[in-house]
Amino acid sequence: MTSEPRVPILVLSCDWRSREAPEELLGRQERAQAAALPGPGRRREWVRSRLTGKAALRLVTGERGTQILTAPDGAPSPTGRGVTVSLSHTGSVAVCAAMPGCRPLGVDVEPVDPRNDVFLRRVMLPQEELAVPCGRPGLRSTACISCKEAAVKAFRRPSVRLRDYRLRRGAQGSVWVAVDGTDLPGLRVWRECSRGLLTAVCAPAGARPVYRRLSPRRVLDVLTAG
Fold first, then answer.
1. How do beta strands 7-15 and 207-213 pair?
2. What gap in Å lies between CA 132 and CA 203, rounded to an integer?
3. Are 52 and 90 in contact (CB under 8 A)?
4. In tens digits, what is the pLDDT along the chain, a chain of 226 residues?
5. Together in a domain, 222 and 159
6. The domain containing residue 35 runs over which residues?
7. Do residue 193 and residue 166 come from a single domain?
8. Distance CA 81, CA 49 (A)
9. 55: left (phi over 0), alpha (psi -120 to 50) or beta
10. Which Gene3D superfamilies did the record assign (predicted)?
11. Same domain, 71 and 160
12. d(CA 91, CA 97)
């Protein structure tokens, strides 16, 4: 027997520090939603995330013109069919996870910060910490919090309390998450740490994250290519 091929998740990140994200590359409905946001900082983050997400969708589907709108529950909702996206940002860095099909998917990016150790007891039980290996100061706590934040998005927010999303260790060091008080099937969580940022991706087990980093120029090249 051959094993079923895993569905790839493209996890695309872009640091927009060196270049402004041009709103003219947004679609008409996206521009309208951006214009309604409060304050220039929130709007800048939104545009950066959308352009990164639109580039990820182009790489996954090959289609142009897909817009990523905000659904009533706050989740990103692409206008194209047969694809799922999740967005996150911190500082000047935007991250998008995109995969074919309509499946649970969540992504979160956080700077590794030792101050997260203080908040760990508020969001998880002691046995949950064993699910994530320890590392330098702040790494385990940032990973645990980021995994739960990604799970909130993947499960579409059945609870707003991070403590209700329970982590557990699986085979070969894998990490899984389930929601207390629900019969929702558990999801897997992957972690990747690079350049001081922890990225967590939450999705069904039959998936496989593929990480790519593009400069703003390369993102714009993807969006404007014929």
1. parallel
2. 17
3. no
4. 344 457 899 999 999 999 999 999 999 999 999 999 999 999 999 999 999 999 999 999 999 889 999 999 899 999 977 899 999 999 999 999 999 999 999 999 999 999 988 888 888 887 787 788 777 778 989 999 999 999 999 999 999 899 999 999 998 889 999 999 999 999 999 999 999 999 999 999 989 999 999 999 999 999 999 7
5. no
6. 1-103+207-226
7. yes
8. 20
9. alpha
10. 4'-phosphopantetheinyl transferase domain
11. no
12. 18
C-alpha 111: how far from its chain's center? 14
Beta bridge partners of 15: 93
Q: Which long-range contacts (CB under 8 A, 24 or more apart) does 20-25 make?
A: 21/47, 21/48, 21/51, 21/216, 22/51, 22/220, 23/47, 25/51, 25/54, 25/220, 25/223, 25/224
Bridge partners of residue 13, in order along the sequence: 95, 213
Secondary structure (3-state) at 135: coil
Q: Are residues 86 and 119 in the same domain?
A: no
- Report residue 91 as tokens: 């500082």
Residues 99 and 4 placed together within one structural domain of the fold: yes
83/150 same-domain check: no
Q: Which of 74, 69, 72 is nearest to 29 (CA)?
A: 69
Assign residue 62 the CATH number of its domain.
Answer: 3.90.470.20
d(CA 191, CA 170): 14
Structure tokens at 148: 């739960």
Report how many domains make up the chain.
2
